[in-house]
Predict the structure.
Amino acid sequence: MKGKSRNKKIIVYFLMIVITVITVGPFLYTLFIALKSPSQGIYDGLLPTDPSLINFVDAFKKTDFMLYLWNTVIVTGIAVPLNLLFSSLAGYALARSNFKGRTLVLTLIISTMTVPFQLYMAPLFQIAGEMGLRNTHVGLTILQISTAFGIYFMRQAFLNIPKELEESAYMDGANPFQVWLKIAVPLVKPTIISLAIYTFTFTWGDYLWPLLNTTDSTMYTLSIALAQMSQNFDGGNLKLISAASILTTIPSLLIFIWLQKYFISGATDGAVKG
Amino acid sequence: MRESPSKITKNNMMKTLTPWLFLLPSLAILITFLIIPIIEAFRWSLLDYKIIADTSEFIGLANFRELFADEMFWKAFINTILFVLIVLPMNIFLPMVLASLVNQKIKAVGAFRVMYYVPVVTPIVVGALMWKMLYSQDGAMSRFLVSIGILDQPMNFLTNSTTALVAVAFITAWKGLGYYMIMYLANLQSIPNQLYESASIDGATSIQKFTKITMPMLVPSMTLVSILTIVNGLKVFEEIALTTNGGPAGATTTLVMYIYDKFMNLDVSIASAAGLVLLGLAIVGSLIQMKLTSKREEDLRA
């Protein structure tokens, strides 16, 4: 019996390691290419024989990497706090007040989630142009500063917290805004952090909208710059692309590793309660 | 305690106004950048709209007639459905296996969860470029398959018209593994333990427990994952644009690629009409999926 459960454990670990190779392997592969020195061919062996950081240095020297990074940081820095603020305000109203038109607003918001971006990207392109948002940082954030998904996600979280605390705060004379900020928001902290990660990930890696809305290369985000670099997908360039890819991913990875405890447990806790 | 009439009306007004104040920023943004563009897309699909000159002429359903007469559109339409059909089983079953594995109380399971989630937080441009290297003629995928004897000689999976669509679909599945795993994980943890315990007493094997208890209890997540896969799979752009750009010879041209090309040629009316077809597919796909699973749920209850 004991031997059987040990065998089972070995199979489980074996499967888990195989899956890790699939999920993390591409990063290691790219990292190894980025670390290969100029004398080693790109596909020449898996590991770098003479590891060198030259490709990372080149990413900064040969491209405007700092500028692209800065653009990406600004866009993400605008989008994340605004989406948290606006989505949690709207989600709270849709969870707690029973006002006329609530069902309509909610239905409208949920139904827009099935609409593919490619349906309305051309009209959005025109509207953004008319509003003077072409080639601006704000213009790159308009899809993320308040999202249907965010509102729905926050509403579900607010529905899951008990009402009593809010009611007693009203008895003490607090106004709805104070109750939202001081009582309700702290109770849904895991959801707020999850939404922050979603918004960060989406904005940091967004490609199609920045591609349309950015014509000026000084406004490129990292994703656009990488895609532009990869137009020339051959020998000399691939190591540089690999290095830039790794650099682009590092901030996402750091934030994820930093907040993953909240994230994975937050997602499961919410569902168990619901 | 009685309140003066004026105070009551003021209170009532505050009560009706407050939710709208909370909603105001979001509504303003969503109306401007989401609702109006969607309505515009419907309108443009009925116009011959010249985006640069900003002139338009109502032409009714002529755009749709032109669209349906275009061979490339039908190719894109079929590729889109094929793409979703390839991704769907991968998205439904692989994350379920992952979730069952990392739901066990064994050492280092947390680290595995994190590693399975890494592709989700990876910028998709990076993901696409990494896989483009892996799939290339001299890349790791070819070498691996040659070394275990599945392939006779190295090949580039993205430039071969029989493998290209499957190859890009796999990138999409890879990116979603961790995301859908978390959904299944949440669902798994809500299954009462007594079910497994009593099954053990009755002498059920692990595999029997998985097929007779776990799978049926996971139907709600399967529905959600399927709908998200359909809705998101129809929108896939980066994985295709950055690896094959729709090629070889249109083998990976999906509706999204078709729409993008039309837009780049400033054919925005045709692009809008094709966009509506895409929306129709998203709605029909989700409805079919919901119907299928609700029937399955009823069968299970019976």
Q: What stands out?
A: Chain B touches chain A through 87 residues (CB under 8 Å).
